[in-house]
Write a structure and sequence with these properties.
Number of strands: 14
Strand order of the largest sheet: 6-7-8-3-9-10
Distance between the termini: 37 Å
Largest sheet: 6 strands, mixed
Shape: globular
CATH architecture of the largest domain: 3-Layer(aba) Sandwich
Order of helices and strands: EEEHEEEHHHEHEHEEHEHEEHEH
CATH topology of the largest domain: Rossmann fold
Radius of gyration: 24 Å
Structural class: alpha/beta
Length: 309
């Protein structure tokens, strides 16, 4: 749906984006990840034509992107921007009209979303009367009013309590099922694991990874397994011998333990199970995959080490 090719942007001779390329497919939730200052927001602003790129191209649904395509994009910026003295319903109608809807469609869509989120009682409140989380919800609705094909959300979950985070995530899943493309720029790695199909990681103005969430996690796995068993911990440790390393252990009941074990050399899970059988009663074995938080830290630290060489 969106294809970014060799996008470069600099400010005061310092790269904000250095030949960054990636693609966001139709009907997927795409995570745009990176530390503060990596270039995520700059890329989002370039896609929305708020600022101009120095070089590179962007294609929207197979065509070179123009200003006309902006009406098919919904955008929730990181810097919230509602008019404090306007009433909620008037604000939503105004923002929908900016996106090309007529007054009646704007009002109908606004009332639909207020009712869907069960906040229709807010319609006559002024924005300045709302809490940060409430105003955030209104701005999220504003990004959806014109039924965009692509929804770009920059840190959409900041300011929300856990209940509203779940509400927003469920709504994003529903929009994906309708075929919308969603670009999610966030530091909330739990939400990335939960709802994103693919992700790209930007660090120090360069893209350093792009793949499915599963592949990104699998690529960073370290041959570790979580094992839960009944029996004697000393017997378990002795059975590991030299082919496996006991990294972590936790007693979870009487003579019951949960451990993390790392493979050494060319050993495999079958070898581990054979060494344990007869020594302890194995209840569960699961290969440990790193979280997206761990992937994020590993890849950014590796990039910094490479840059220092």
């Amino acid at each position: 749906m969106l294809k970014v090719t060799e996008i470069t942007k600099s400010f005061n001779r310092k790269f904000a984006l250095d030949a960054v390329s990636m693609q966001m497919n139709k009907g997927e939730i795409f995570g745009l990840l990176g530390p503060n200052g990596a270039g995520k927001t700059t890329l989002i602003r370039i896609i929305n034509q708020i600022i101009q790129k120095d070089s590179g191209t962007i294609h929207f649904d197979g065509k070179l992107m123009t200003e006309e395509h902006l009406r098919f994009i919904g955008y929730l910026p990181e810097e919230r921007g509602l008019y404090k003295t306007m009433r909620v319903l008037d604000q939503l109608i105004f923002l929908a009209q900016i996106r090309g809807l007529n007054y009646s469609d704007s009002k109908r869509n606004a009332l639909h979303w207020l009712e869907k989120f069960d906040i229709q009682d807010w319609s006559k409140k002024r924005i300045e009367e709302l809490s940060k989380g409430m105003a955030q919800k209104i701005q999220f609705i504003a990004a959806l009013l014109h039924e965009p094909d692509v929804l770009i959300l920059d840190e959409p979950l900041s300011g929300f309590d856990p209940v509203n985070v779940e509400l927003i995530l469920n709504e994003l899943k529903s929009l994906k099922e309708q075929g919308r493309t969603i670009i999610l720029s966030t530091h909330n790695m739990r939400s990335v694991e939960e709802i994103c199909d693919r992700a790209a990681l930007i660090h120090q103005s360069k893209k350093i990874a792009e793949d499915t969430i599963w592949n990104l996690r699998e690529a960073q796995k370290k041959g570790e397994f979580t094992i839960r068993f009944k029996g004697n911990m000393i017997a378990f440790a002795n059975a590991l011998w030299i082919g496996f390393e006991l990294i972590e252990k936790k007693e979870i009941g009487e003579m019951r333990y949960e451990t993390t074990v790392k493979m050494r050399g060319g050993n495999k899970i079958d070898d581990l199970l054979k060494s344990l059988m007869g020594n302890v009663e194995i209840e569960a074995v699961e290969e440990r995959y790193p979280s997206m938080q761990e992937v994020f830290i590993e890849l950014t630290q590796r990039k910094e080490v490479e840059d220092e060489k």
